[in-house]
User: Fold this.
Amino acid sequence: MSTAESAAGSAAEGTALLEIDALSVAYGRRGGRPGQQILEEVSLRARAGEILGVIGETGSGKTTLARAVVGLAPVTGGRITVDGAEITGLRGRALREFRRTGRIQYLFQDPLRSLDPDLTVGALVAEPLAVTGTGSREQRAERAAEALHRVGLDPGLAERLPGQLSGGQRQRVSLARAVVTRPRLLLADEPVSALDASNRNHVLRLFDRLRTELDVAVVVISHDLSSLAGIADRIAVLYRGRLVEQGPTAEVLTHPLHPYTALLTASAPSVRREHRIPPGRLRRQEAAPEWALEGAGGCGFAARCVFADDACRAAPAVEARPGAREVACHHADTWRGRLSSPELAVVAVGR
Amino acid sequence: MPASSLSEPAADTPVLAVEGLHITVNGGRTEAVRDISFTVRAGEAVGLVGESGSGKTLTCRSVLGALPPGVQVSAGTATLADRGGGSTDLTGLDRRGWERLRGVRLGAVFQDPASYLNPSLTVGRQLAEPLMVRQGLSRAAAHRRAVDLFTAVGLHRPAEVYHRYPHELSGGMLQRVLIAVAVSGDPELLVADEATTALDTVVQAEVLDLLGRLRSERGLALLLVSHDLAVVAEVCDRIVVLYAGEVVEEGPTEQVLAAPAHPYTEALLRVASLGDWSRRELAVIPGRPPEAGRAPTGCRFADRCAHARPECRDGVVELRSAGEGRRSRCVRLEALHLSGTVLQEVSA
Amino acid sequence: MRTLRRTWRVPIARLALAVLAAVALLAVFGGQLAPQNPLAQDANHILAGPSGAHLLGTDYLGRDVLSRLLAGTGLSVAGALEATGVALLVGIIPGLASLWLGRVFEWISLRAVDALMTLPFTLFAIAAIGLLGNGIHQAMIALGVLLSPLFFRVTRAAALGLRQSPYVEAAELMGASRRWVLRHHIWSKVLPTVAVTTAQALATSLLTVASLTFLGLGVQPPAPTWGGMLATDLGFLSQQPWAPVLPGLLVMVTAGALHLLADALRDSGAADAVREPHAAATADPAPAAREEKADARIVTV
Assistant:
């Protein structure tokens, strides 16, 4: 039990529904070949009724994380436990049986492509039930109508085809299909990226409502800070396959402990830019140190980090911080103090 | 006025002047854009903001001469000022005219950078080729200039990037390449249509910075089109807010955001990224914009407006002055005090 | 069914279907419709021109040409159907199975198909006849086996693109069995492409049947077949120069109608529904089509 876990556990109410322990995922690993490491030793928790936001840029491994939970990514290390049951090693028939319970649901990024264009909305939403042969056709249709209603859609849409709906409506259909099995855990991959500002908030509000109504744990994957800031209780920041910071959303975003998180919040466009560090101060302009570019161990962010030094040759461990927070950085406590120092001005891009 | 090595048009002549633009779709049967006017001066960044269906993309495409078949400008003009005085009417240009203009006086970047590059050629070659063809540079000179341009757009190790293929570069790098292509001909106007929408947050900030830098270094006129008010707020000097095919508000960014003069702008502000990270009630604008050609009489936003009154629905609403350099298409302009937000400069 | 409806809208398809319907009728009822007995020889009227009794004249044995043509339709068409039917069975099922039964089966089936594709149709059919005896069935089954790679490849390609679609993955995440996925998500989307290929295969089989019977293989004389008639007519070209035109025309028209139907099926966009997921599956997963792009009323570039 690491200090991180006990710190996080003591602040938690209720047990974690989803427990990810030191998860590692790599593609193309065969024989002696190490393959390509996508995730390395990531540990996360999500409780029932909580929304956990996972944020990262392209290549951070955030989508792979979600896919690993549902068994779509090659796990090479660590454990995933849902509701006390370990699901990491499930294969073949056992995996299919588990999937049929509908306890975990995964929401794809693009509802246009994740809904079969030739099936009606009603058939699509009822499909998880039909696959398991739950109830009669009428009962399934009833549950589908209930699910549609729950996500704010008129059940009369059941006869339409996905192509006849708007983007926001399709996303809701996708969500209806996910909640029809009354899941315990919902994983949403970029649920609002394809929608514009006002539609985005409609769907985000829906997530907020659903998690209390259904007491599900929700994990929302996103690259967009403002979507997560609106609804996530806790936020986990991934960078190049590693967890760099985790904690309550408001704290993490207003007082980031990791330089990358600070860079993220500084870069996010906003209409009002209060108390923000100019992103230029956090962007490295000078060539990165050689050892950082090789990628031979060490902190994954060092190559872009303004504060990187020799200590960063060793990969930083995830450490607990007060307020149920975690951070993986050698300089977590000191980088802020160095922000305005003159030698940093040379390294950074500037205002 | 930022310095520029080019001879500029007379200081009060805008680089781009769009006047009374009307665009029809469906082969002329439906009017999608009505009476849009705005200007962009040299060294100025103007943001066109609006949700889907506001007409911002159509307006942008008409300025670039890239309207799809069945869609055309039915009235109005879009004028590009010539360097030596005089001007070119973009709406009346034929193919030849566009060939002379595109890339030379007008540059553009769009949303999905990968789809604008040939996957089987190196990015350097794709930049060098037009330089050789248009500017008559030799292969070696074009190569050097391409590397210079890559440096100017902030690509690390530009000489190496020259030999990379598009699939080897990230989205942010590709967008920088396309910006390099867009400014290679030293254009007067750069149009960015949702250029940063598909990019990661950090990269988005870098690209927006780059656009801002190019604007001040080269005296570029910048037209930024986005659905995200926050993006526009970061870079633009002036904002033009579009709704249902019309301009509903226009003015200097700070003023428009601090004290909006139209309820739609106020609503957009509420749903935009505030940069305030504490949990808040997610605001929505109820309802949907009217479909093209099916706009109600009177104010088009009235059905969704929190401040609507019966008089808002009588008759056509004109664009009126709302102060120095500001315009608004709100019937109740004088009566309303709309809440905005204050742009603060950052302190470390 | 949606496929048929869409195809009906294409004008050429209606013409093609009409022609094929006529041919089908002849195939079934040709024998009864024939005014005379196709085998009846009349020594007094050899190689006669068109007349009241013999609308299209007689052949070198005094048999009524029209009756022979009508009766011959059945045999020619039956042969084509048999070959195509075999090709469908041998091609489609392994085609789909190669994607869902594991890598070993996939490899074996691909190599088997490669081998089959190297063999030429007519020669193989002749060899089969030589080996198995001179019957039309043997020849058609052999032909069917040779045509099966076409269906194998087409089905496999179609299903491959579909298999990678997010909606198939979504079904797998529901715990759906392979059968369920195939039945509900793949099969109906593969059908339009299969339909196009079937029409083309029928045309090819028909021509091959005609060639075989032309060479005197497969069907024993005096049974009338189009190809057989063509062969004998060529022998008497100087006396009846117009005679070969008739069976040749029938072959041509039928094969032509089949190809037109195939084109219409493809053009009706039914087959495009299969190709779409192809492109979509390989597209960049970056935040794609926004509300605006999905919004049909704004024609975005």
User: Anything to note?
Assistant: The longest strand of chain B covers residues 30-40. Residues 16-122+180-236 of chain B form a domain with the Rossmann fold fold (CATH 3.40.50.300). Confidence is low (pLDDT under 50) at residues 1-10 of chain B.
